[in-house]
Every structure is written in structure tokens, then in C-alpha cells.
Amino acid sequence: MKALLGILLLTVGANCLYSSNSDVVQLNPSNFDKLVTNSDNVWIVEFFAPWCGHCQALTPEYDKAATALKGVVKLGAVDADEHKSLGSRFGVQGFPTVKIFGANKNKPEDYNGARTASGLVDAALSAAKNKVKSALNGKKSGSSGGSSDSKKSKSSDDVIELTDENFDKLVLESDDTWLVEFFAPWCGHCKNLAPEWASAATELKGKVKLGALDATVHQEKAREYGIKGYPTIKYFARGAKDSDSAAEYDGGRTAGDIVSWALEKWSASIPPPEVIQLVGKDSWKDSCEGKQLCVVSVLPHILDCQSDCRNGYISTLQKLADKFKQKDWGWLWAEAGAQPEVEEALEIGGFGYPALAVVNAKKLKYSLLRGSFSYDGINEFLRDLSYGRGGTAPVKGADLPKVRETEAWDGKDGEPPQEEDIDLSDVDLDEKDEL
């Protein structure tokens, strides 16, 4: 029993890094703005991943600094592997990333000092000193939505005005994800929400649309959605919608809260990209043109890996495409030998098949999978790439490789070519001898 308890404690510690007794505050999308960006305290925040070795090495030093700074500067930690939207909001590219939320909460500074308790304490005290100087000079700290002036400068044009007449066409008949605020002009809470709503609309542009409907004027829609108080926010998922498809928004009222909540919903609703066979220029264009990265796999020849085997590989790739669907990536596969120029340019196949490379078409660079062609092996490889880790090499020839026009796989097993029988009945004896 004691051994089992020890294993459980080790597992919990590995997953969260900081214990409940730690002076390091656990932060997440629900409490971040309230505790950090809307507060008057100076904060140092670590964005970590539980599996990250460097994060695990930093933990005791970070813990020590949090205890030393207690009552002076607060230290927090965000599991950015779990709360990806929060990491994305602050431009986190790798782990651990440590940011200082000091005099200007809108623009946290990156901490690039020593990963020791002493280094963290020095940086924290310096940030606190700068904050005090700013206060002496009459400057105020920023908050999650910025000052009232900066909020006003955010363009409210990104908030779409909705009416009884255009609601169905713009919201229900679209493929877009929507958050819709039902408000009343005289409502004080609505007035407080307005700049946050405008700021969130700007940040979410291209992913989630934010609309606003004056429910005192457009009462038909207000009645249809049972609006009883103001502001009321409804969520409409992407794709086919009807009047019964609205869900209640249950997040906070700051721009940060709205953005985090909306991004989580949006991420869950977007369909994964399809893993398609590279059979010509059109398939490259459809899957990878304009994408940030393109994942290219080369699978064994059908005679070396029949349909069940091949479909297994494709299924693994499709699961990974689903997992990384938030990324702007394309996914392709080709049969070994069908695209020799592609294999040569990306050095695929040097260690056999299946093989995989990730291409950045704009920078003409690629990274080759050197580990296991399995879900776990590819997942770890792609995860490192997504955080800016892993080696790259220039595409050979300094240009995108030629893509050959080939026939698409019919989904069937391969059949070896049949040898032709030679009929010797009409061959004279001399010719038979030669044969």
C-alpha cells in the first residue's frame, strides 16, 4: 500500500510539478486575469509542460524563489500543455517560458536570467522597483484589457451588429463560430462589457465572430432565445445551426476570459485536415499550399505492405492530424518510389519505409523524423516542432521538388505482375536452341 501511495504521489507531482503546499500559485484560464492581469501585484509566471525536463529542473528553484518573495512578489505557474489557449495568448513557443507581469500588465517581459532562485528574486525585485517608480511618475499599471483609453482605441468595427432581419443569415446560415451578446443600451453591465467585447472581437478575428444585438429594439430574437437579463451571451458552434443550437456562455467578462473560452470551443469544433495521397500538383496545392507546414509521409510499396497495413499507417496519421488540427498544417502521403524527387529533396527513405518529413515551403526547410513511425513517435516529433525545437535542413535544390502525376491508390491489395508464358509450338528448332 505504501509503495502504491508513493507511486501515486510521484505521478501527481510529475503531472502538476508544484504541490498544493507550494507558494507557487496554480494559474489557468479561469483565474489568470483576476489574479494576475487585473491585480496590482507584480507577478512572475512560468508557462510549463509536465513532461518538460527543463521545467522539472527549474521546479525546486522556482519554489524556493516563491517562498523568499512571499508578500513582495507573487509567483505563478501555468500548465501550458493543458491550457494551450493561455500559452498562445502570451506567445509561448517553448518550455519553460517565464514572463514578468510588472508595471505594464499588457506587455509582460520575458525573463531571460539564470534559472536559479537568486536570479528570479533579483528580477522580481527589479520589476517591483520599476513599478513603484512608475507610480511615482503618475503612470498606472495596465490590466488585461488595457486602460480605458486603449480599450476605446480597439476598433468596435470587429463586433458585428445583428438585427432581427440579418440574424438568421449571418449567424444560423453561416459555417462560422459565433458569440452573440444580447444587450440593452441602458444596462450598466453591458456598458462595462462593451470595450472588453470589442477587444475580444479583434483578437478572435478570423476564428470566432462576435456579434451584438440590441434586445430592446430587436425583440423578436430576444423572445426566441428567452432573454431575461442583460447582457446575455449565447454561443453558436460552427457548421449547420438552427434556433435550438444556441448554448449559454458561462465564462468571465474580461477580454481574456472571452478569448480563452471562445478558443477552446473553436478548437474543439474545427474538423481535422484530411490526410490525402500525393498524386500530383493538385493534391499538393489542395493540402499544403499556403500552409505553415506540410507533413509528408512515404509509406511502403503496396506489395510490401498490403491494404490492412497501409490503412493502419493512414489511420495513425489521421489521428495525429486530428490532434494537431489547430495548427495550420497540411498532411500528405505517397507510396515509396512514386515521388522520387520528393524523397530525394527531403532525404526520405534513407532508413527505409515508412518515413516522414515536415516541410516549411516558404522557408524551404524541412525536418526529418528519425524516431519511430508510430503514434507516440510522430506525436513527440511534431510536438517538439510546434514549440520550435528540433533540427532543420534546407530543401535540396533550394526549391520545392517536382511532383509527379500518378494514379491514386484504389484501396485494394497489390498483385505481383504475372509472368507471360512463352508458346514454343511455332518456334523452329534453331530458335528454340537460342531460347
Topology readout:
Blueprint: H1 2-16, E1 25-27, H2 32-37, E2 43-48, H3 53-68, E3 74-79, H4 84-89, E4 97-101, E5 109-110, H5 117-136, H6 148-153, E6 159-162, H7 167-172, E7 177-183, H8 188-203, E8 208-214, H9 219-224, E9 232-236, E10 247-248, H10 255-269, E11 276-277, H11 281-288, E12 293-299, H12 307-323, E13 329-335, H13 340-346, E14 355-360, E15 365-368, H14 375-386, E16 393-394, H15 429-434
Q: In words, what does this structure look like?
A:
By secondary structure, this protein is of the alpha/beta class. Helices cover about 35% and strands about 15% of the residues. The chain has helices at about 1-15, 30-35, 55-70, 85-90, 115-135, 150-155, 165-170, 190-205, 220-225, 255-270, 280-290, 305-325, 340-345, 375-385, 430-435; strands at about 25, 45-50, 75-80, 95-100, 110, 160, 175-185, 210-215, 230-235, 245-250, 275, 295-300, 330-335, 355-360, 365-370, 395. It has a six-stranded mixed β-sheet. A five-stranded mixed β-sheet has the order 1-3-2-4-5. The protein has a five-stranded mixed β-sheet with strand order 6-8-7-9-10. About 35% of the residues are buried. The model is unreliable at about 1-15 and about 140-155 (pLDDT under 50).
In DSSP terms (H or I, runs of 4 or more residues), the helix count works out at 15
Envelope shape = flat
Largest pleated sheet: 6 strands, mixed
Q: Largest beta sheet: what is the strand line-up?
A: 11-13-12-14-15-16
Distance N terminus to C terminus? 80 Å
What class would the helix/strand composition place it in? alpha/beta
The percent range for strand residues is 15-25%
Question: Mean pLDDT, rounded to whole units?
Answer: 85
Percent of residues in helical segments?
Answer: 25-40%
Tally the beta strands. 16
Whole-angstrom Rg = 29 Å
Low-pLDDT segments? 1-15, 140-155
